[in-house]
Write a structure and sequence with these properties.
By secondary structure, this protein is α/β, with parallel strands linked by helices. It is 38% helix and 20% strand. GO terms for molecular function: protein-disulfide reductase activity.
Length: 141
């Protein structure tokens, strides 16, 4: 446990809830309910493509340094929007088929989806102001 905490501090990752048996952390705080990890293609179809709310899709990888910076930054801003937008996290190593289908050639890649369609996209890291503008455009604020 001490090693895990030291590693989280070293990598500047936010502390999260219990770790699932496959090694991924799942958040338990109220602010994390808007963010979820995609489990498979069917889950992506149900929770992203068929979502009545706009969805930000974060294509990332465990080994990606910029992803470790962008992910928590984006999660924080999505949580602030209190359910107006959802955030789906897709690990490209686990879901290569989705990465290919959505033409992800580099990580991090973030898609903005509304009614099952990609309406905006960016590749790479962004600062908080740029992310806020991206989210506001998605929700029409």
């Amino acid at each position: 446990m001490a090693q895990r905490l030291a590693l989280q501090r070293l990598l500047s990752l936010p502390a999260r809830g219990p770790v699932a048996s496959h090694g991924r952390a799942f958040g338990t705080s109220a602010g994390r309910r808007s963010t979820f990890n995609v489990q498979d293609g069917s889950d992506f179809q149900d929770r992203v493509v068929n979502s009545p709310k706009p969805v930000v899709v974060d294509f990332h990888a465990q080994w990606c340094g910029p992803c470790k910076i962008l992910g928590p930054r984006l999660e924080k801003l999505v949580a602030k929007l209190e359910g107006k937008v959802l955030m789906a996290k897709v690990d490209i190593d686990d879901h290569t088929d989705l990465a290919i289908e959505y033409e992800v050639s580099a990580v991090p890649t973030v898609l903005a989806m509304k009614n099952g369609d990609v309406v905006d996209k960016f590749v790479g890291i962004k600062d908080e102001d740029q992310l806020e503008a991206f989210l506001k455009k998605l929700i029409g604020a």
